[in-house]
Amino acid sequence: MHLLVRWLLAPLARFIYRPVVHGAEWVPKDGPVILAANHRAAVDTAVIALTAGRPVSYLAKAEYFVGKGLKGRALASFLSALGYVPVDRANAKAGLAALQAARGVLEAGGAFAIYPEGTRSLDGRLHRGHTGVASLALSTGAPVVPVGLIGTELVQPVGKKFPRPYKVVVRFGQPLDFSRYEGLEGSSAIRRAVTDEVMDAIARLSHQEYVDTYHERPAA
C-alpha cells in the first residue's frame, strides 16, 4: 500500500493538479518538523503530503482503523500508508491523546502536519490558532515550518464530494525556531506568544485576512 501511494497515486495526483510550490527547500529532509498550515478544504491534507518532499503524518479518528472485514482492513492500511495516526477522540482526554500521538511522531524523527485553527475556515479568513502547535514545538524542540495553502477551497468546495482540477499554490516558509523558550512549555503566555508567531507567518504566506478570534462553525 505504501508503494502504491508513493509510486502511483502521488505522481498521478501531481500530474493532474500540478500544484505550484514555493519554498520547498525550507522543509528539512529528515528529523522532526511541524508543518503548520491554514485550512481551507478537505484536500489540504493531500496537498501537503504531495508537496512536502517527505512522508508527513496526521491525526485521524481511531475508529477508521478498527473496521471489520476486508473493507475495514483495506481502509486502515490505506490510511496508514497516507501517514495517518489513529487517536481516540471520543473520550474526555482526547486533546491529550492527540498531543501524545503527535509527540510520538516527532520524537521518532518524523514530520507532523497540524492546522492550528482547529477546523476549516468557512469565511476565507485566517482565525486565531489554538496552542497545541506551541505545546508540540516547546515539548519536542521541533522547528515549525509555516505553510500557506491557496486555492484548495476551489478544488473541493464545501459540500462537493469529489475534487476538480484547479490551480493550487503551496508556500512553505522559513522554519521557526522556539528553542529560546526551552523549559517554558507550562507557561500559557509563552504558548500563546509562540502560536501567534506561527499564525502571523501563515497569514503572510496565505495572504488571508487574520481575525483574532477562534473559528466557530455555524449551528447545524
Automatic annotation (TrEMBL):
InterPro entries: Plipid/glycerol_acylTrfase. GO terms for molecular function: acyltransferase activity. SMART domains: PlsC. It comes from the Bacteria. Residues 33-152 form the Phospholipid/glycerol acyltransferase domain. Keywords: Acyltransferase, Transferase. This is Lysophospholipid acyltransferase family protein. It comes from Pseudonocardia zijingensis.
